[in-house]
Amino acid sequence: MVRSGSDALLQSIDLAVEAERLGADGAYFRVHHFARQLASPFPLLAAIGAKTKRIEIGTAVIDMRYENPHYMAEDAGAADLIAGGRLQLGISRGSPEQVIDGWRYFGYRPQEGESQEDMGRRHAKEFLDLLGGQGFAQPHPHPMFPNPPGLLRLEPYSPGLRERIWWGAASNATAIWAAKLGMNLQSSTLKWDESGEPLDVQQAAQIRAFRAAWKEAGHTGTPRTSVSRSIFPLTNDRDRAYFGRGGREQDQIGYIDNTRAVFGRGYAAEPEELIEELRKDQAIAEADTLLLTIPNQLGVAYNAHVLEAILTQVAPALGWR
Question: Are 252 and 216 in contact (CB under 8 A)?
Fold first, then answer.
């Protein structure tokens, strides 16, 4: 069970190792500051990279309002090299945090005429530019170490990481913005309510708008898209005690920063019923990647059980790999 920040970090490493053993494709982590959990992602990602060999290792999402793009580019490059090029970094302007305007305590302020959302997107664009690997810094005439010719870039540099950055978009407009910049798309368990339709219908439309914007921007390659869901097969009495009582079978409406949002339903049922319910989720069908949200506070063994049940009793029937 998770009782401290140390528990959260160490158990996250163990759970990622278990996920790889069970055959899952990746391990992604939410990032929240001023909370005793996973506020600083790069040491965790590097540790998981060193203890696994195959799975993707990612975030969902890093709040760019808090980030120094230069320092982040160095940390991300190092973690990606340790992992052998397996990082998939989800970034965004962020979500409500534990404290009011927590980014101010990190020394950041919006520029004149800029909102905090604008500041997060500005930090993101700087980060993307730095990951491109172009030299920009004038070398010292008498350096401590030999330099290559020309302007210097940040090191360590990891080729290909720029193509593995995702934007967590809560609206259609920011999904289109991310596509124009050549980022992949993460659509979470909530979205700004832009049409009054169910979350899965809105997310499917968001993904289609993102792909159209990507194509219009002239990017090569195929962008990736993901949605997040809470899915719990009820296979034993413990599952039923934790998740079999109902209460989240419908989308919920709420407000974040005075904006109306639709929150996705949770899926909890016997495997056969669960498979039929998931077939109807339009966003899962539209996306190429499904991120499963799991209750890490319940410990490694129980979460490994949940993952194994999904991978063996649900995924094959739906054609997931």
Answer: no
**Domain residue limits at 25:** 5-168
Is residue 52 assigned to a domain? yes
Q: How confident is the model at residue 248 (pLDDT cuts 50, 70, 90)?
A: low
pTM of the model: 0.95
Give the C-alpha distances (Å, rounded to integers) separating 166 from 60, 90, 127, 148, 180: 9, 4, 12, 31, 12
197 is a domain residue? no
- Has residue 303 been placed in a domain? no
Q: Which CATH number characterizes residue 92's domain?
A: 3.20.20.30
Query: How many domains are contained in the chain?
Result: 1
Which contacts qualify for 273-276: CB closer than 8 Å, 24 or more apart? 274/231, 274/233, 274/234, 274/314, 275/314, 275/317, 275/318
Give residue-wise pLDDT tens across range 167-177: 999 999 999 99
Whole-number Å distance between alpha carbons of 178 and 192: 16
Q: How do residues 253-267 score in pLDDT, each as one tens digit?
A: 888 878 899 998 899
Sign of torsion over alpha carbons 268, 272, 273, 275:
positive
Say if 252 falls within a structural domain: no
Contact assessment for residue 183 and residue 165, using Cβ atoms and an 8 Å cutoff: yes
